[in-house]
Amino acid sequence: MQHYLNFVDGQWRDSSRQLTVMNPGTGEAYATIAQASIQDADDAMFSARRCVNSGALSNVRPAQRTAWLLKAAEAIREITDEASMVLCLENGKNFQTSKEEFEEAARYFEYYAGLADKIEGISVPLGKDYIDFTQYIPMGVSVQIVPWNFPVSICARSLAPALAAGNAVVVKSPEISPLAMTLLFKALEKVGFPQGAFQLLCGKGSEVGTHLVKHHDTNQIVFTGSVPTGQRILKDAADHAIPCVMELGGKSAAIALADVDLDTLLRSVKLGIFYNAGQVCSAMSRLLIHRSRYDEVKQAVVKMTESLKLGQGETHSELTPVVSKSQQQQILGMIKQAKEEGAVVLTGGSAPDLAGYFVQPTIIEARPDMSIAQKEVFGPVLVITPFDEEDEAIAIANGTEFGLVSGVFGESINQTLRIANQLISGQVFINEWYAGGIETPFGGIGLSGFGREKGQEAIFSYVQTRNIAIRLSHHK
Ligand code: NAD
After folding, report:
1. Best of 221, 223, 224 to mutate for ligand 1, by most ligand atoms within 8 A of CB?
2. Residue 215: which residues within 8 A CB-CB, separation 6 or more?
3. What is the pLDDT of residues 251-266, one digit of tens each?
């Protein structure tokens, strides 16, 4: 079995303890990885602090950072084919989805390469006796905590803008699915960034994760993960007033209007809830359907769902396993509770007779107040609900504690935009779920978190403003 290492102070480092990484497609052990210790975390933080203090990242001409980031994009593309198979086998995800993750990671580096030399302040007019201007300076040491669902692209999503802005970064990879991230760092290692610019630690969240959050050298925390962990981190960060970016969960709704185009909607439903086995923070986990089209849309969604080919990621199947046994059991438990509350399972609802951690693609008819329509499932489970009036649909869509994304499907530009204007979420998709890309600002409202990733706006998550005010002396 292959063994993977952590990256600390420019060296690949083993540990006396290790974590076993499973293949979700077979339920068998796939590889092992060194489990980072507190000492590893301290060494990583020290190295990052030294890098920050040296100015090796922040004092160079910004065009130098552009050059490093562009080389990083190139290096990532060189390893994509080989590394994508590792991601596919450790995560269970489709091989094509794995390749898309690496391509997206490369795009983040390319995109923020273009911004690295355009982080410009403003000049503030204060009258003839003063000159005043602002500067955007790096935060310092950015601690970035990554989840398992898109470990490579989410890592790059935070790492690339942080480096573009001149921060040193300590990344904590997830205990589940950390291997492909080590290959990403092997690619980055070749680029020639200053020593200590980035470090990678795979360790327990409750041990190494907490230690990094509470570390006196931490200047910023970027957390992507579940709401309970985010809340725990916010409490720890409050003790030393560390700024945080929180990218948390969702329970996002699509609204299908009376004039919806059925084929357009079905394509989006398939992508929205079954891509990556529904393990997407911005998954379409609720579909609200106008009553005049309810039976037709319901039947078509169930038919599409029953046609999906289940299989391991490397077989190019449409529905892959979920990431772990505990995730599988949690999803099945939520479906069981939904049935007990009176929700109706229209198709799926159990684990198929396959090796690996599969959950059948599931459609559930439920009222908006039921737990299955309120809580994040993080699996291939779609809740459908009818509505009569536009205002009712908006109220249901906005009626959870989350606010990550939402969607509107219909032919009238007037009606779709009128509804979009009232949806409380960080992004609204019209007529295509996941429309947008790395260029469009992404982040949550409410329990979905705060701060923005992606797009030009994300650069402001990685800088702080310094204002310089100058009093001019009088002419003698
Ligand atoms: P998780 O919260 O269990 O773990 C995320 C990371 O936090 C892991 O690296 C874990 O080791 C670490 N961690 C755990 N406890 C910690 C602690 N006390 N201190 C510091 N770090 C700690 O989440 P997960 O199960 O890996 O990911 C799934 C969740 O992530 C879902 O809720 C999903 O919606 C969310 N997510 C959000 C986004 C987004 O951009 N908004 C993207 C992907 C996933």
Report:
1. 224
2. 41, 42, 45, 143
3. 999 999 999 999 999 9
